[in-house]
Design goal:
This protein is of the alpha+beta class. 19% of the residues lie in helices and 18% in strands. The longest helix has 19 residues, at 49-67. The radius of gyration is 29 Å and the shape is elongated. The two termini are 29 Å apart. The relative contact order is 0.10.
Amino acid sequence: MDELRKQVSFKLEWASKLPSGTTFFQTLPRDKTHPLVPLQFDSSPLNGWDRVANNAYFLHVVLLSMLFGRIGRGLPSANAKVVEGEPELELRLQCPLSLAAQGAKMPSFVEIVDISDREKTRRPERAQSAGAIPLENGLVIDHIGLGPDASTCWQVLQRVRTILGWASHDGSEGVYDSKRKGGFFKAIMSLPSFNYELITVPQLKVLASIAPGCTVNAITDSKVIRKFRLHVPSRIYNLPNIHCRRAICVANPKNQQRDVVTFFERVPFYETSAIPNCKESEYLFVCKYCRWPHQYEEIWADDAGKHSASLDV
């Protein structure tokens, strides 16, 4: 370290060799025990760093004034034009189940299921032994975690309850055989007397991120009046138990960057050496920060035990 410091430090005895008009700049604060520029230059015309620091104050004042609207345009207003392709922002404070009935455009991850030609009346007599009893009023989420592993269905159910904050709602839930897909399991959550008019589009987006492929059924007087099928969103972010598996990534929790919001972008599947044993699927999810690809199951922190440890690459 001392040898390196000698190579980059200016010695006082060299001052007479400096050309006229020379000015020194250096980063502040500095190490006064081992200064790179002699302390004797502080009160001389060679001192250019104090002037730079003083000017930076005014530059920062201008930048902050522009940011907070004292000068220039300021921050976007709450009524700013919605970015095309993000209708969920426009609808964030409104109930999508009611808006769907009014013909409003839904986000791309929300599919409105046509139930006009189906029998919509719930029939309690069809309930199986130990199964969920059809509701008179409330919300039913079906096809949660559809797949060949029943334990995965239970994990997804737990995520839905905890991440959406629905653990306090009365209801029933369970994992059952899928009648439409042999050898597969699905989870069902029934929430009686749940006011589905309070559900927002961001909540549906969270649900779509946790349980893509699930269906949301709004029930009134034993009839399904609205039915949505949720697909994988183009972006999954700001959920409490998702993380990038790459150890050197700023979004890996081991790096303790608490201000960083984990953010994945959905991309079409491609073969990559980053996931050597990857089974072909419809999508991969790429970390916004390090661009490392993940399969859907790998982005969830509570599934980390099923995969290798964080990648030290």
